[in-house]
Amino acid sequence: MAAEGWTWRWGWGRRCLGRPGLPGPGPGPAAPLLLLLLLGPVAADITDGNSEHLKREHSLIKPYQGVGSSSMPLWDFQGSTMLTSQYVRLTPDERSKEGSIWNHQPCFLKDWEMHVHFKVHGVGKKNLHGDGIALWYTRDRLVPGPVFGSKDNFHGLAIFLDTYPNDETTERVFPYVSVMVNNGSLSYDHSKDGRWTELAGCTADFRNRDHDTFLAVRYSRGRLTVMTDLEDRNEWKNCIDITGVRLPTGYYFGASAGTGDLSGELDNHDIISMKLFQLMVEHTPDEENIDWTKIEPSVNFLKSPKDNVDDPTGNFRSGPLTGWRVFLLLLCALLGIIVCAVVGAVVFQKRQERNKRFY
Ligand SMILES: *[C@@H]1O[C@H](CO)[C@@H](O)[C@H](O)[C@H]1NC(C)=O
Ligand SMILES: [Ca+2]
Q1: pLDDT for 251-273, tens place per residue?
Q2: What is the tens place of the pLDDT at every residue in 197-254?
Q3: pTM (2 decimals)?
Q4: Structural domain count of the chain
Q5: Which ligand approaches the C-alpha of residue 315 most closely?
Q6: Spatial CA neighbour of 268 closest among 140, 15, 51, 80
Q7: Is residue 330 part of a domain?
Q8: Is residue 213 part of a domain?
Q9: Which residues line ligand 1 (CB under 6 A)?
Q10: Domain CATH for 113
């Protein structure tokens, strides 16, 4: 347990790993200083047990060599996606655009961590922008569709970076990050921002930031963690942490985006890098012996208690059940209040009695 905790912390610090090596113009005059500050701990970490590795074949890194080339493609793209030397633009800030970029090779790592450097920006004011980015680990790739530019009823994992509240009745604050696991049977309900199918989520203020914005997804031993780094502090902030997630190996990483058909000012959706790290995690012989490519994506729904306690509808089953959950929660709250009141009354009475005895 202690060892696992150690690897965990160690892994999350690794955002800086790829940064010093990035070619091309740096982020500004502070870069050399930052580089010096970062190099120290990074160098120490690399020799420290080699717990994880950047996997070039699953990473999208400037200057994007092998992207979209026909001879040795690492990544393929589709739709409105446009490649520049500094970023991959999935959509421009125009209406009804959708684009995606997909890793060419399936990923056979059992434990991995993906760091995504992205930028969502446009001149649109509140509620006049959209729709957002989806990050994928799925069976199929390069298939356009209605879910942030990619196909619905997908097999695998999706992380949605949703900037537009389609459900006007929602009390949620957008932009909103959520995760969904699908075996092909579920459909993403765009008009409800995927609420019925989401496993967990968090509000994340990533749109129109002046500095770099990052998101990390870690999958290891059935535990799925999503973290964000949006405040320019080189620090991961917890967004989603759930267990019981089963995903096969042999799926593809990808990113897609869509701008929706609103008229108005829309967003540019840019991916600057996607870096995949292998996590060195021990598995039991039993785990090693099964064919991981045959695993059906599923969730044994065990939400970590700190996720969405205030959001009882963040359940991945459908409508009626969520009503029941709200009712049960209210009932529990009511019972709690009654118990507190009774205990309070008894304690008060005891005290009164004691006071009577002493005086
Ligand atoms: C797919 O998931 C649904 C619910 O999410 C479940 O009812 C169904 O049995 C699953 N199908 C397979 C083939 O596992
Ligand atoms: Ca939405």
Answers
A1: 999 999 999 876 666 899 999 99
A2: 999 999 999 999 999 999 999 999 999 999 999 999 999 999 999 999 999 999 999 9
A3: 0.73
A4: 1
A5: 1
A6: 80
A7: no
A8: yes
A9: 183, 185-186, 296
A10: 2.60.120.200
